Amino acid sequence: MLLDSDTLKHELELLDGWKIDDNSISRVIPMHNWKGVLMLANAIAHLAEQAWHHPDLMLTFSSITIKLTTHDEGGITDRDIILAKKIDALVNWDPKAENKFMGTPHDDEFKYIKKDNS
């Protein structure tokens, strides 16, 4: 079932950088380099394949644009929101916060997802 505008607005407030884009929701993720773009695109593809709900991905050297829509419903449904949340969790995971992993080194050669502080 398509989400009504109030529900969609509320759900988008809980997501990280997603916006309404015609009959879909989209997010642009800035990246440091092509290697990172490919790694993240493959991780997103894994989530999508597991969900059997496939986004449109546009890859450039330094960004990934993700568009989610439920084609058989003709717009945005809870399936798009659920997958967007999974993608956000993947992108925003901070292994250092768990005090078990060192996380990506700070050297530029190892950076791949651009965060506010990188």
What is the topological layout?
Layout: H1 5-14, E1 19-21, E2 24-30, H2 34-51, E3 56-60, E4 63-68, H3 78-92
Antiparallel strand pairs: 1-2, 2-4, 3-4
Which features would summarize this protein structure in a list?
118 residues, Gyrase A, domain 2
Mean model confidence by pLDDT: 94
Helix content: 25-40%
Topology as a string of helices (H) and strands (E):
HEEHEEH
Low-confidence stretches: none
Reported by name, the CATH topology is Gyrase A, domain 2
CATH class: Alpha Beta
The helix tally amounts to: 3
Principal-axes geometry comes out as: globular
Radius of gyration, rounded? 15 Å
| Helix/sheet category | alpha+beta
CATH superfamily, called what? Transcriptional coactivator/pterin dehydratase
User: Which strand-content bin applies to the residues?
Assistant: 15-25%
